[in-house]
Amino acid sequence: AAATTSTMTRLSGTQAAAAALLLLPSLTLGFTSSFVSSPRQSVSFPTHTTASSSSGTTHAASSALSMSASPIDAAIGQPTELPDSLDDAAQIAAESCASFAAQSGPASRCRVDFDTSIGDETYTTLKSSTEFMQKFVSALCYATVPGLMDMRQKEMMAIASAKAELQALMAEHGALLADNEEESGADGEEEKEGPEEGSPEAELLAKKKELMEIVATGGRDPTKPAWTGPKVRVYFPDEGSAALARRDWGLNDPNPEKNLVPPCVEFSSCGGVQMQDISDDMLIFFFCPRASEAESVEEILYKHEAEGADKLLLSVFVNPLLVDMGVTGFGMAGRMLRERLIDPLQPTYYLRTLQWGALTRVWPRQFTVWQEDENESDGYRLIKSMDRLPSNPEVEDIYDIENGMMND
């Protein structure tokens, strides 16, 4: 680290920024964090090698999503591996959705299910999957929205360059800058005058202030709109959830380093009057829509597909629960809703942790059931691979058969 700092000090401008970017983690998510254990995420996953996302995400959406038929065909019938972490799960889910959109064409529909609660109902599904949702939305935005990754890279280049220049400036003129920045001495002393305008000291102070502002704003020009390109809209079940996301997801912070999702993202709710402009929406997410919002969800979806047919790439349902005995029932109304809206959704990503393992799927691979096994190097053993989602009783039967507690 000391050697890196020394090297960065000697570099200037673009050289320093380029060197800094080589040291930064992947830009795909815009940020990284470890998979922190909690009551909702208590299962650690084995280490598997997962293909990283393409670096060509700054091209137009059609080229950014292009994927030949052969890799997809080769994946059909293959088992799905478990992710390494929550970050990895979000990244894989985004890649799967992007590939599906490229294969299926505009205005495609899919679903993503992520549940690591292991039956713990302490937290709502929305709350327990919020961190995954933030990272998943970010990854899919960077993978599909034209120009977004390019903008983020430029911001990070600006930050790296400013930090390198500031470090070099302080190393060479630190004592002089400190003296000139001192506004007053001990209590009772008169305020000292600053350096004369146009003097070398004044220019150094102005340069330092400029560099510090670049770092403080995350490389983004605060005088310009954060984003003017295609939009991504996340629909929450109600306005209260949407309002909390506007507050907590960092979209109002001018520093992109503190944004948990990219600036192209906007929040709305399934309830109430829909007054927002959706003409530029490219991706839409329905985050944990409930049965009580089923009618609104359908109306919103059809409106997007009718008015934005030329721009809408993909509609993603995340942890949908649109059929409920107490609201829609399981009779004719529930069956029609399933046939009309739910059944056609392609399950592009599925992960559910179990008391003894996990069930997962990445489109177009198979659903796989994994059992914890301390004798395996990665801690899990594949016990079943299927071309459809097994029911809860089937999953338990698979476990019982594998462990000799039931005949096949």
Task: Tell me what you see in this structure.
By secondary structure, the protein is α/β, with parallel strands linked by helices. The chain contains 13 helices and nine strands. The protein has helices at 2-10, 13-23, 61-64, 69-75, 86-104, 125-128, 130-144, 148-181, 200-216, 239-248, 294-307, 332-342, 392-402, and strands spanning 108-115, 231-236, 265-269, 281-287, 314-318, 346-353, 357-362, 367-372, 380-386. A hairpin with a 7-residue loop joins strand 8 (367-372) and strand 9 (380-386). The longest helix has 34 residues, at 148-181. The model is unreliable at 1-68 and 183-188 (pLDDT under 50).
User: Into which percent range does the helicity of residues fall?
Assistant: 40-55%
Strand order of the largest sheet: 3-2-4-5-1-6-7-8-9
- As a percent range, the share of strand residues is 5-15%
What letter string, H or E per element, gives the SSE order? Answer: HHHHHEHHHHEHEEHEHEEEEH
How many distinct beta strands? Answer: 9
Describe the global form. globular
In short:
The longest helix is centred in the middle third of the chain and has 34 residues, at 148-181.
Descriptive key words:
408 residues, 9 strands, disordered N terminus
What order do the helices and strands come in, and which of them pair?
Blueprint: H1 2-10, H2 13-23, H3 61-64, H4 69-75, H5 86-104, E1 108-115, H6 125-128, H7 130-144, H8 148-181, H9 200-216, E2 231-236, H10 239-248, E3 265-269, E4 281-287, H11 294-307, E5 314-318, H12 332-342, E6 346-353, E7 357-362, E8 367-372, E9 380-386, H13 392-402
Parallel strand pairs: 1-5, 1-6, 2-3, 2-4, 4-5
Antiparallel strand pairs: 6-7, 7-8, 8-9
Helix pairs in contact: 2-8, 5-7, 8-9
